């Protein structure tokens, strides 16, 4: 195999920065399967890892970034995967301590791979990526705790982000009464197109000193954390459910026990990183069938080449992007 392009992140004098470099296969992380990457995607975690703006996300340097990838197997020493198979690889240690998906080739352990399910192409798989997987896993976990469309209105916090956009699309398609909570009033038409019935501005989620607020939501999906998660805990209906999977607003939040002991609130954490492979396969099969978004092409608002990643990371961390960005590895860096 000749050399190929990859977006690799380096640390020098406590400065973290990424750039497009030429790599040989020998430089990639360990694994028993090598696949040619067709598409990757950009997640908030990728932007943090490649810029160092929230400290060290990666556990070693240098490292190829990108926690998502999908492509076609070229080499395999595991009988479950053969050359020509289409595969998805997300999370685990990808882009954190193992070379990730911002590369023309990936080498990974076979136990991280999910066969591409019928009903999805490789582009759709990375239009979803970890964001779509997180959204579907959050829905599954709340369904296990009684989430139903007839249960009452739901609110999605951080609704214009990758996970939030996909949640709005999926849940409205399943006939839930969806309210989108966002700081981007200019995105009202976008969210309505995905199916949101109402838009709630971020300032409406201001925290007061009261231990409980008016009951509004049967369920909430939160990618923000901080004070907005505190507000959500106070505004849930009896036996309300909150799926917590993000920290765009910060890792700390304050609250009190009354929503839990007087309203039976359940706050459910969603871990999309270390999910067992059997659950991953189940969730990806649902993303190809009953949980497949209806407007996925509208959610993918940006298509990038490797050399366009750095400026996009800055926009993402500054809250200036909407929807999902897909990295097309067929696009040659300038």
Please, how many domains? 2
Task: State the order of secondary-structure elements, H for helix, E for strand.
Answer: EEEHEEEEEHEHEHEEHEHEHHEHE
The CATH topology of the largest domain comes to: Quinone Oxidoreductase, Chain A, domain 1
Described by the principal axes of the CA atoms, the overall outline is globular
List the helices and strands and how they pair.
Blueprint: E1 4-12, E2 15-23, E3 33-42, H1 44-51, E4 63-64, E5 68-76, E6 86-90, E7 105-108, E8 114-115, H2 122-143, E9 154-157, H3 162-173, E10 178-182, H4 188-194, E11 198-201, E12 217-222, H5 226-234, E13 236-244, H6 258-262, E14 266-269, H7 277-287, H8 296-299, E15 300-304, H9 309-317, E16 324-328
Parallel strand pairs: 9-10, 9-12, 10-11, 12-13, 13-14, 15-16
Antiparallel strand pairs: 1-2, 1-4, 3-5, 3-7, 3-16, 5-6, 6-8
Helix pairs in contact: 1-9, 2-3, 2-7
Explain this structure.
- It is a single chain.
- This protein has helices at residues 44-51, 122-143, 162-173, 188-194, 226-234, 258-262, 277-287, 296-299, 309-317, and strands at residues 4-12, 15-23, 33-42, 63-64, 68-76, 86-90, 105-108, 114-115, 154-157, 178-182, 198-201, 217-222, 236-244, 266-269, 300-304, 324-328.
- The chain is α/β, with parallel strands linked by helices and 334 residues long.
- It folds into two domains: 4-116 and 295-328, Quinone Oxidoreductase, Chain A, domain 1 (Alpha-Beta Complex), CATH 3.90.180; 130-269, Rossmann fold, CATH 3.40.50.
- The strands form three sheets. Strands 3, 5, 6, 7, 8, 15 and 16 form a seven-stranded mixed β-sheet that branches.
- The chain starts with a strand and ends in a 6-residue tail after the last strand.
């Amino acid at each position: 195999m000749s050399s190929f392009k990859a977006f690799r992140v380096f640390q020098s004098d406590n400065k973290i920065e990424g750039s497009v470099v030429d790599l040989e296969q020998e430089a990639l992380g360990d694994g028993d399967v090598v696949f040619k990457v067709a598409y990757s995607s950009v997640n908030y975690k990728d932007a943090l890892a490649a810029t160092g703006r929230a400290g060290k996300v990666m556990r070693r340097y240098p490292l190829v970034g990108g926690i998502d990838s999908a492509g076609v197997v070229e080499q395999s020493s595991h009988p479950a995967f053969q050359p020509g198979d289409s595969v998805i690889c997300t999370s685990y240690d990808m882009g954190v301590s193992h070379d990730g998906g911002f590369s023309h080739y990936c080498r990974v352990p076979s136990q991280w791979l999910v066969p591409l399910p019928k009903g999805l192409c490789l582009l759709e798989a990375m239009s979803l990526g970890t964001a779509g997987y997180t959204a579907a896993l959050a829905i599954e976990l709340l369904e296990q705790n009684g989430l139903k469309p007839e249960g009452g209105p739901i609110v999605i916090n951080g609704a214009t982000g990758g996970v939030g956009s996909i949640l709005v699309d999926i849940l409205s398609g399943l006939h839930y009464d969806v309210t989108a909570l966002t700081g981007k009033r200019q995105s009202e038409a976008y969210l309505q197109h995905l199916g949101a019935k109402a838009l709630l501005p971020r300032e409406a989620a201001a925290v007061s000193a009261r231990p409980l607020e008016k009951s509004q939501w049967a369920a909430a999906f939160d990618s923000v954390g901080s004070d907005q998660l505190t507000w959500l805990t106070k505004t849930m209906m009896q036996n309300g459910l909150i799926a917590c999977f993000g920290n765009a607003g910060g890792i700390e939040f304050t609250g009190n026990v009354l929503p839990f002991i007087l309203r039976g609130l359940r706050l459910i954490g969603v871990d999309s990183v270390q999910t067992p492979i059997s659950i991953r396969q189940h969730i990806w099969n649902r993303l190809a069938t009953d949980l497949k978004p209806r407007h996925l092409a509208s959610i993918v608002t940006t298509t990038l080449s490797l050399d366009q990643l750095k400026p996009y990371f800055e926009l993402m961390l500054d809250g200036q992007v909407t929807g999902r960005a897909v990295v097309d590895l067929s696009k040659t860096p300038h």
